[in-house]
Amino acid sequence: MAKKKTSIKDIAEALGVSITTVSFILNGKAREKRISDEMTGKVQDYIKKIGYKPSHIAQSLRLGKSKIIVFMVEDISNQFFASIARLIEEKAYKNGYKIIYCSTENDTIKTKELISTFKMRNVDGFIITPTPGLEHVVRKLLEEDFAVVLFDRWIPDVDCSYVVVENKLSAKEATQHLIHQGCKNLGFVTVDSSQTQMNDRMDGFLEALIGTEAKSAILKVKFHTISEQEASRKILEFFSSHPELDGVFFSTNYLAFEGLHALIKLGKKIPEQIRLVSFDDHYFFNLFQPPITAIEQPIEEIAENLMDLMLKQLEHGEVQNNKIILPNKLNLRESSVYK
């Protein structure tokens, strides 16, 4: 059974004072309301002793809602996140809310600092792609009654609403597609990360190999090197050291961009010599020759569900622990189909 949160009423009863007195002291109005220093100290000492934290929703009711929602993602310039941001902004505006965007760069320290700053600005809610080690911070937000929805990835140890896609199933289907196209030596290029979506994509890839004769080689690239030359070098070395690969699955589109560059350098013909699939479709994949087979995430559905969950929390003033998992679509193109 969940532990009942301490309320202003509980504090008032414990100290034998009125709820109004406690409320004035908590809101810094003790002197204005001529409450004695002795009484103020008594209340402050007690709330410090029990570790009381005022409800964010209760504060909002007293101070007025900011009507601002924070949208925190790994990289707001990424097409996937930017597309969702645009749709969220539209729905938020129609419901009287504004959106603040920020990029975490998958940096936990930066994320914590940003959340702390936004909390002091009295924002109403957070839509977050969580970084590693953010469990305590998200729990704290929930304890303080902030509206919180996670997306793209979730935190297994925190009971919080989230919107994600079928990462494992989609990765499995994409890998099976390569196998059905005759691939016997498969490469998997991914981010070296403990994030749930990356783990699920890896699991889907490996599960597709079970019971087949296909062999695999895996490359994990550190996140902070993705925008640097080291990522390109690592991927080039990977393909150079595995000339037997006849199929490759990239867990993200930005890794696929680097991979295509490496394959061109090596003179590999797609799909004649190596077939290719990427997670997270991109408009560039249709322009490339040959066009790239990719898993398309349901952008509009993700945005719609994110805002629906957020607005329900803000309107009802309580946490809605809803878990939504959406299906993806595998767009088959010439890069994976060799006739």
TrEMBL record:
One of its GO terms (molecular function) is DNA-binding transcription factor activity. Pfam families: LacI, Peripla_BP_3. CDD domains: HTH_LacI. InterPro entries: HTH_LacI (IPR000843), LacI/GalR-like_sensor (IPR046335), Lambda_DNA-bd_dom_sf (IPR010982), Peripla_BP_I (IPR028082). It comes from the Bacteria. Residues 6-63 form the HTH lacI-type domain. Keywords: DNA-binding, Repressor, Transcription, Transcription regulation. Gene3D superfamilies: 3.40.50.2300, lambda repressor-like DNA-binding domains (1.10.260.40). This is LacI family transcriptional regulator. It comes from Cecembia rubra.
